[in-house]
Amino acid sequence: MMLSKVLFELVVISVSPISYRTSASAIPIDGVGLEARQLPPVNTWVYQGCYSDPNADYRTLMFSGGRNDTMTLSKCSEVCGANGKKYAFFGTEDGKECWCDYSLRPRGGGVKVDAVKCNSTCAGDATGNTKCGGPNALSVYRNPLIVEPASKPIVVDPATGTTWKYDNCYLGFRGAVRTLDLRVDPAAGVTIETCTSTCASLKYTYAGLEYGHECWCGNTLHMSVTSAQDPSVACKQACDDNTNEICGDIGMLSLYMKA
Ligand SMILES: *[C@@H]1O[C@H](CO)[C@@H](O)[C@H](O)[C@H]1NC(C)=O
Ligand SMILES: *[C@@H]1O[C@H](CO)[C@@H](O)[C@H](O)[C@H]1NC(C)=O
Fold first, then answer.
1. Entry pTM
2. Which residues, 6 or more positions from 218, have their beta carbon under 8 angstroms from its beta carbon?
3. How far is the CA of 69 from the centre of ligand 2 (A)?
4. E strand or H helix at 208, and its extent?
5. Which of 98, 146, 160, 205 could disulfide-link 88, Cβ–Cβ 3.0 to 4.6 Å?
């Protein structure tokens, strides 16, 4: 009884500094003070936290929204929300960079980090009050009006009546070995529906989507399911041709199989 009460208090204490707080009673550590300066929503976007962005090949937010000396949170939010690009996330890095994406990607090792890592003043903010990430760290905002892309548990191809079932997110390749070996990008653009339908018309058992815009078919998985799995990675990338759907990720395959 005693012990569980102590544990409970430890949990509360350790969680408080990193949780989202709006009241002035926030525990007064630097990190919370910094977070508070970023908390006000930018247009409709809501602050999510400071995320590391350690890997230039697998960015935590993938699409560049520019880098310059006039960067502000508001400008980046406009770039990521403009021209029908329905990015759910924007992030600013190193005071000057703007990044956009449909989802946060863990592929490159990006995780939520202490707010002090996002202490670079936005280069275009003359008051110096707003923070635009830090070196290899992103101040991340989310637009709650945008739904994040998703896989489809079941897809029925209207042309052939074939039912496809979503299986899992696998490595698209390892070295020279591809999990599925025939690339057939449908002329109508790559979505879950067009890819599974194309693989159905070619009488294949598997259909896979990769990197937002690649469609792969096959009858055999050229890797064992075990070696094709990487539990640390999720398929998060929106299909270029339907940003409500997930089409794998960088080097990752959203695999569908005939039911
Ligand atoms: C943030 O950076 C400012 C200088 O821009 C510095 O004075 C302050 O101590 C830094 N805060 C933290 C928590 O690192
Ligand atoms: C700087 O980048 C922001 C965001 O991409 C953009 O809105 C702004 O026009 C750019 N400014 C210059 C001078 O290029």
1. 0.75
2. 179, 180, 181, 182, 204, 205, 206, 208
3. 8
4. strand 206-210
5. 146
Cα–Cα distances in angstroms (integers) from residue 79 to residues 84, 92, 162, in the given order: 10, 12, 41
Q: Which residue has the least CA distance to atom 10 on ligand 1? A: 119
Q: Does the Cβ of 31 fall within 6 Å of ligand 2?
A: no
Predicted pLDDT at 41: 58
Separation between Cα atoms, residue 170 and residue 123, nearest integer Å = 40
Q: Which residue is closest in CA terms to ligand 2's atom 11?
A: 70
- Reply yes or no on whether the pLDDT at 13 is more than 50: no
Half-sphere exposure of 81 (CA within 13 A, CB side): 16
DSSP 175: T
User: Look-up: residue for tokens 């599925």?
Assistant: 180
* 91 C-alpha to ligand 2 centroid (Å): 14
pLDDT value for 241: 92
Tens digits of residue pLDDT in 153-169: 999 999 999 999 999 99
